[in-house]
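Fold these two proteins, one after the other.
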Amino acid sequence: MIRPATAEDWPAIWPFLRDTVEAGETYAYPLDLTSEQARDLWLEQPPGATVVLEEDGVVLGTAKMGPNRPGRGDHVGTASFLVAPQARGRGVGRALGEHVVAWHREQGYRGIQFNAVVETNTAAVRLWESLGFVVVGTVPGAFRSRAHGFVGLHVMHLPL
């Protein structure tokens, strides 16, 4: 079940957000990010939204979405995703991705732009491409991967 995230979900989200950031392979958030700072980054305020995918009362994943830029760029959306380690490979990311695309369509966005998909995160790149996103450019060496050193960040786009 995908539903709006609440403040009460934060204790379930924070451990896998923290661990994902510390792994150093997908998010450029600071390593010293506190729970409070991360909560403020992750739990979107309107016009954005944050959701969780929950199964039997356990949060397995989360996504945040909303306008990519304010003002004259607010017709293009963006989103970020996290899947709990124990739920990877179970379709959680795909379900959240499909939800995010549908949400942006319902809200009247003209497209979705992902600003920073780490090129070595091949599972994410494959997933987004399977949902119709294309890589419109790559910023070489823009991400310091713990495992791979300096790698590119893809900008991906889906017209709606």
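Now the second one:
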Amino acid sequence: MTNAARQSWFDAPSNDYHMLPVTDRQMRYARAIAEKSAMEIPVEAQRDRKALSDWISAHKPRDPSPFANYPTGKQVAFAERISRTKRRPIPAECFRDKQMMSQWIDRNK
């Protein structure tokens, strides 16, 4: 057996990613996305791992967490330090919106 025959697709260079077969897990996820959004997966994407990955990235649901807009722990801690030092209360709505918290911090530093 020659060296070329022993080389498996695991040994393929990283730029040959598109030549690797589509995985079952990847295809199941793509089908779930397609079903929820009433779309069809292009035939080319079903045969090419990179194309399917790109299709998934373009069509996966973008449901942000309900907490995505909340201020970070560091932001809250910094605001609380400012609040204690300057003896100014932090408005309650700032704890629900990181943009408002940021503005409060900027106004009270």
